[in-house]
Amino acid sequence: MREIMEALAIQAPVLLQGDPDFVFQGLTTDSRRAAPGQLFVPLVGENFDGHEFIGRALAAGASGALLDQARTGIQDGWPRSAAVVQAKDTLEGLGLIAGWWRRGLPAQVLAVSGSMGKSTVKEMAASILEQRYRVHKNKGNFNNLIGLPLTLLAAGPDTEKIVVELGINQLGEMERLAEIARADAALLTNVGPVHLEGLGGLEGVVRAKTELWRRMKPGGTAVVNLDDRFLKDAAAGIPGEKVTFGTAGKSPGADVLLRRVRPAGDGGLNLVLEIEGKACEADLPAVGLFQGLNAAAAAAGAYALGAGLDDICGGLTEFEPIPHRMRLLKGVDGLTLLDDSYNANPGAMEQALATLVQLTPQGGRSLAVLGPMAELGEESGEAHRRLGIYVAGQGLDLLVTMGAFAGVVAEAAREAGLAGVWEADGPKEAARILFDFGRQGDFVLIKGSRVARMEELVSLMSEVRDEL
User: b vs e for 380-412, b when ≥16 Cβ sit within 10 Å of the residue's Cβ?
Assistant: First the structure.
């Protein structure tokens, strides 16, 4: 309990009941999974209030609970043996406890953020570091003010390296995440027009993302993409150590250099990286030439934490693609699906469409089902209009649009000369169009923001769930 009070010190915590010498053995935010020895931290969202479940958590065996200062205090029926602490805010409290725990861990932390590719780069970097170290990483999309603390709190004292992804969509979030993570190395993949609504335009995105560099652990290393002019310029004002990465054509002086990337016969990539004048060739099980720069980013991040050339080659070869992020799947009726349904933004849309065209064999047909790009604010209409024009320029055989702005994309594509354009009111209708139009050998891209439920279409069109 004294450790919890210390962690929450800036919130002026008050112990309402319980033994001040009690030592908690863990923490949970889910009352259904509460266990003896744990502290239950109730969180408040738009449609739920975890304080309503404190009684359930304590009854299930939790040894204590944290209360928001706006609550009235001890409730009838709560065990008198339970430790109950009241502090300013439970979400902030969760972060403070995780930050306290992280400061006591001997492990080094690599924090990864950016507008595109951060999940993939996180997984690649973890795979590299796992060649030599005991590694802990965040699961799925545990990358926000809830997920990051839970990830750090799950790391044990025997962990040697921690790789975490940080995702934001509002100003002020990166500062809090970075302070919790206290990264030894901070990697930004790129910046682009993502979450414009909450971050205040592209300049706001750059300013918000680069807070990760400004709030590293003292003596930390900034990992810089020299191919990205915004990050290259911003990094010039960051003091301390830097590890840079980039492509041979744009950034020949980078510490980690992508010398070559080309498609491999099995649907993956063959790439060559150069580090300190030595070459590393790897067969990467990933789709899309742009993944070569993601691999260079991951190599640079892992290199900053001590990975060697052999670790980088081995880790990239053993990388496992993430579900719904640029995965090739066997589809029904002989279709091949390019599943990139997790999310979407303008840059990632263009990357995915270019990859679709690259993958489609000569004489084959390219089809795409595209959902909306969310959180673009005032830029939404124009961004979707530009997307329609871009699609038309790729020479696709069929475009199906879904969700918000489906009409904008479709109309722009038709006006730009694309004949085969359909609008669908949901995954089932999109699947029906593909069943009617598609034929064996077609390649189909499925991509859009999560609000459009694109993953449901993937499920309807997939024959198996494994990669090709």
Answer: beebbbbbbebbbebebbbbbbbbbbbebbbbb
How much helix, strand and coil, in percent to the nearest 5, is found in the chain?
40, 25, 40
Sequence-separated (6 or more) residues with CB below 8 Å from residue 40: 27, 28, 29, 31, 34, 54, 57, 58, 62, 64, 65, 66
Query: Could you tell me the sign of the dihedral formed by the alpha carbons of 266, 268, 270, 275, in that order?
Result: negative
User: What does 86-146 look like in DSSP terms, one character per residue?
Assistant: EES-HHHHHHHHHHHHHHH--SEEEEEE-SSSHHHHHHHHHHHHTTTS-EEE--TT--STT
Global pTM value: 0.91
Query: Which is it for strands 135-137 and 38-40: parallel, antiparallel or unpaired?
Result: unpaired
Over residues 235-273, the pLDDT tens digits come to 999 999 999 999 999 999 999 999 999 998 777 999 999
Average pLDDT over residues 124-131: 98
Residue-wise pLDDT tens digits, 389-441:
999 999 999 999 999 999 999 999 999 999 999 999 999 999 999 999 999 99
